[in-house]
Structure to design on (41 residues):
């Protein structure tokens, strides 16, 4: 069986019911990328 892209880069999976969900996280510096969004006045 061919590996998925997640398996190739070493992502872990978590079983939820009948499904395998990849355990993904967002790096802390990526959360601040929305600084270009104009603020409401």
């Amino acid at each position: 069986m061919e590996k998925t892209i997640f398996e190739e880069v070493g992502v872990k999976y978590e079983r939820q019911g009948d499904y395998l969900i990849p355990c993904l996280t967002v790096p802390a510096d990526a959360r601040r990328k929305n600084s270009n969004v104009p603020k409401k006045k």
Summary: The longest strand covers residues 13-16. The mean pLDDT is 76. The CA atoms of residues 30 and 36 lie 13 Å apart.
